[in-house]
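FIELD: query
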Amino acid sequence: AHNVSVLRGALPPGCELMAVVKADAYGHGMAAVVPQLLSLGVRSFAAATLDEGSQLRALGAEGTVLILGCTSPQRAGELARLGLTQTVADLAHAEALNAQGAPLRVHLKIDTGMHRLGIAWDAPEAASAVFRMENLTVDGIYSHLCCADSLAPGDVSFTREQIRRFYALTAALAAQGISLPKLHLQSSYGLLNYPELRCDYARVGLALYGAAEGTAARSLGLRPVLSLRARVASVRDVAKGESVGYDRAFTARRKSRIAVLPIGYADGYPRALSNTGLVRIHGCLAPVAGRICMDQLAVDVTDVPGVVDGDIAELIGDASPLRAGEVAARCGTIPNELLSRLGARLPVVIK
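FIELD: result
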């Protein structure tokens, strides 16, 4: 509730929050997140696939559900039946969708420099052709700012050029007499770092879950809504010179106490954090000892007094250095990947 309120306060006038809940709500659990968002008045959502869109409908989302990925035209009937809004990946995709004969609502994706999906920004004739297709109703036009998270001068210049290209395309369409539908450019970092943009939607994912990093995110006071915890399964003494775990990757330099946690890389805790990760037990930080296993990991709790079986260890939390962005950086990735890989077998506790 806090993050939704804060983000709504940051939106420009007339801009609606579109909650991005793909990848099981960034690993947070769509079934838990969506009802909460609906109770807060969120009515527009974005997902990656038709199947995620179907799940949103089943959870009670009745408003706009934008499918960001490229759905097979053969599933156009399902899109129509569920009332989902499909992204047009390029002109050929639009033609194939239209040929299915099902009435569809679509948003045009515009390629302004990311070169992933979209009609080229300098091809307004291709974009305008979609508006004339019998079975497609164009409700929106959007693009994606691919380095809006970076404030490096070169990246800022590139983002500014993407913004210029987007509005050049929409101006060209307007000059043809096309009534422009809803426009959207900003994802989380687009909103945080380029709040001056005037759009109809802001597609917010990472920031919604309080996992965005940087000065702008901190200034808004966004709060992480997920923590990853495990109970200590076993504690044992290890003599100096003895090794722990696979490949003998950890060798005790002193008589040590080792706590074993029943969580591993199959649960989404990256193996890259072997011998580099940190956990918090009894308010103290303790290092991961040795290789992270598929289902378990070891922690050196020699300097944490009184650790016993059943104690709770925190692996991702709301305080440094266990914030998702910090944990992700420690293993060379981003919080989006870290969170979205959290395993389905992890029990979820909602507070």
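FIELD: remark
The first helix runs from residue 2 to 10.
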